[in-house]
Amino acid sequence: MTTTAPTVPLSQGVEMPLLGLGTARMDDAEAAESVRSAIEDGYRLVDTAENYGNERGVGQGLRDAGIGRDEVFVTTKLNKRWHSVDGARQACENSLERLGLEYLDLLLVHWPNPDQDRYVEAWEGLVRLREDGLVRAIGTSNFKPHHLDRIIEATGVAPAVNQINLNPYATRAATHAYHVSHGIVTEAWSPLRPSTMLQDPVVVEVARRRGCTPAQAVLRWLTQRGIVTVPKSSSAERRRENLASVDVQLTPNDIDGIDALDRGEDHVTDSDAFGH
Q1: CB-CB neighbours of 25 under 10 Å
Q2: Reduced to 3 states, what is the DSSP secondary structure of residue 14?
Q3: From 140, 147, 153, 188, which residue has the greatest number of CB atoms within 10 Å?
Q4: What are the strands, taking DSSP E only, across 143-201?
Q5: Each residue of 125-145: pLDDT tens digit?
């Protein structure tokens, strides 16, 4: 029987799988093959971005898998050049053309880029795209609480999702708490990096107790708490292992133990200083 990830409800009336396939650093050919294979193995969430340069490959993989459009959840993200109301629409239309789709399940503003101070306009553009039916849900990526405060105050609309760099060494507890209080689902990117984390004695011991791999323990630490994640892997075997993590059951003590590995945010990319 094929494993599929459970879903989490988004504030904008959409169900999103808790675990999906990330495609960062894949070219079109690799993305096409990985997406096709992943869907055949049970994945129902695919995450890409304009900046990854592989939306055409992702679209090809979706077509090659032969899955119904309503059976797969597709996320992409727009860059800072499109931070305006009209720009957001153009970015969305460009992504739809490259993906070969008629609508997106989730569109994210990839980085706030506060130096150009136009992310509020970008968010206003996403709100309109959702109203017009081109996007089922809208969200942000790498936004801090103070960025989120601004867009919510300007539009009255909170993101359905905020995708952030989150792992056991950077648990982002304050940001996650902010999300919970505002009805925003947290999504973790690069959940298994740094890879040395998978040799951490705490993670190794949790995995031993639960009869799973360290990577599965980390992924389940996220999804069991309702945090979406999209690990990237070019290995079909590793992708299947990642997806099977949804069948692992951690105890509250397991989760608390992994939480305690937090090292703060010094090694997290600062979205007030970096973006594209």
Answers
A1: 12
A2: coil
A3: 140
A4: 161-165, 185-189
A5: 999 999 999 999 999 999 999
Portion of the chain with pLDDT greater than 90, in percent: 97
Amino acid present at 66: G
Exposure string of 181-201, with b = 16+ CB inside 10 Å and e = fewer, is eeebbbbbbbbbeeeebbebe
- DSSP run (H or E) holding 9: strand 7-9
Rounded to two decimals, what is the model's pTM? Answer: 0.97
Closest CA to 143 of 187, 106, 101, 181: 187
Q: Which residue, 270, 29, 274, 96, is CA-closest to 172?
A: 270
- Which of the residues are catalytic? 52
Q: What would the CATH number be for the domain defined by 14-192?
A: 3.20.20.100
Helix (H), strand (E) at residue 17: strand 15-17
Burial of 163 (0-12, 13-18, 19+ CB in 10 A): buried
Name the residue ranges covered by the structural domains of the chain: 14-192
